[in-house]
Design goal:
The chain is an alpha+beta fold and about 130 residues long. About 45% of the residues lie in helices and about 25% in strands. It starts with a helix and ends in a 6-residue tail after the last strand.
């Protein structure tokens, strides 16, 4: 049953038109990504190593719960849902990937699409530098 629901959700998502994302927002996030990638590089990171990359979304309880229920089939694993002092909630999710520029750009674009689609705020990503 869960597999069928996941499949139906993927069909629904595939049929949805992409939500437009502000190009200036994309560029601002990519500039922030460049700073994080530079820091990882300075710490000896090997970007081709696959590792967990964490992402945080923040929003109303209803929107975060909706996202939590539907983000798994999109390739993310829910780490935790955290109530915030201002009454909103944070959803920490994770996926396994590299930290090369192309992979991080894809992560950021996917996160911004989720932000627009679920009316939550993408609050950035993080990971640990990996060395051989």
């Amino acid at each position: 049953m869960q597999l069928l629901l996941s499949f139906l959700f993927l069909l629904k998502v595939a049929a949805m038109p992409p939500t437009p994302i502000d190009p200036q927002r994309v560029e601002a996030e990519l500039a922030a990504d460049a700073d994080v990638l530079r820091s990882l590089n300075e710490n000896g990171d090997i970007p081709s190593i696959v590792r967990p990359v964490d992402v945080r979304f923040v929003g109303s309880t209803d929107n975060v719960i909706s996202l939590e229920k539907q983000i798994g089939p999109l390739g993310w694993r829910v780490v935790q849902r955290v109530p915030l002092e201002d009454g909103r909630e944070a959803l920490d999710v994770q996926r396994e990937q590299t930290t090369d520029v192309t992979a991080i750009r894809q992560l950021t674009e996917a996160a911004l699409e989720i932000e627009a689609q679920y009316d939550v705020h993408y609050d950035g990503w993080g990971t640990v530098a990996k060395q051989r």
